[in-house]
């Protein structure tokens, strides 16, 4: 017998007796919605645990233990994001997961994670498809329900998100629910029914190719346009040259420190690495503003002769004279509004200055600093260089057919590797004359510490 109550000081409802097989419960009092959910989960567990197995030997999925009721979404999100930080995930990665899980919360509300099912995921896809882009920042949209946001997008004829965007959200959700499944917080992931999004392989002739032609490179480094633009800051002068001749990623170039320029057995090199920043590190824990895309991104490259001839080592000497720690001290990484610390996004600051310069030259949107990597790799590919060799320069991950052999039995001396890299770098010979650095030309900027960023 069930008796509901309206007085808040009394239970929401009481149950005199329940019989499930040989299981009996008497005088159960439920005082809250959360208690009702846990009570229902307990009954589900008892029901499954006491179910008689069929003659065919049917096996039922393992249920949650009685002592492990599902927690609400906000708590699981908080712990999941903390664990990402524990695993040394980048700030950008944590922010990306936060956005995706915030959308899920928008759809489901702060419910126990065990109550999130495939219908909620379908609804989230609808929200991603139709809701306005500023749904999480526009004050007038923050109070709208998912249904209202979807309707607003349909009326406005919102453009469909890219397949890569939807697939990124799917991967983030999949990682979140898989973690909950492994922890025993839920019995089965609601993402299990959703497969990865296939590439549609559609080519858009209106989109520019993501590499520079020979004419583009000559435009970029034309002394009449490049020198007036580049003379404002050291990063404008050297970053495009480094990008063109080393195929480094934009953030790899932008975050370089003076200590990353090293001499190995008489060969000047750039060490693409992540080193601790003393002003951030405390209690024996190393912290760095630098970041790497992955293990394969950590590499050391010989400095191409073209850069040495252009006076790159004279620039390094100037930096040391003025006791600069970073190659480009006038380039900001942005500031985290919550912590007040730099975000470490030096590459974004560089792109914000380089992209408008390209547009002024008539190079179309969509072709940016990253095109230097495409240009380098494409040039070497046309010269029949193997992918695994190109990766020695670009820092791409290469899947080995026999990984144990490559990781543990091949021992290549550093000098052998540098010689091989030099040969590869010499294959890239763009018809571009680099401007020559005049020692001391940035002294005013390098000695003015007020204009420096950490």
Order of helices and strands: EEEHHHHHHHHHHEEEHHHHHHHH
Mean pLDDT: 85
Termini separation comes to: 69 Å
Proportion of residues in β-strands: 5-15%
Strand tally is 6
Low-pLDDT residue spans: none
Number of helices: 18
Helix content: 40-55%
Main beta sheet strand tally, sense and closure: 3 strands, antiparallel
Decide which structural class fits the backbone: mainly alpha
Q: Identify the strand order in the major beta sheet.
A: 1-2-3
What radius of gyration results from the CA coordinates?
Answer: 29 Å
| Coarse shape | elongated
Structural features, described:
The chain has 454 residues and is mainly α. The protein is built from 18 helices and six strands. It has a three-stranded antiparallel β-sheet with strand order 1-2-3, covered by helices on one side. A three-stranded antiparallel β-sheet has the order 4-5-6. The radius of gyration is 29 Å and the shape is elongated. The mean pLDDT is 85.
Could you provide a short overview of the structure?
With 454 residues, the chain is mainly α. The chain is 44% helix and 7% strand.
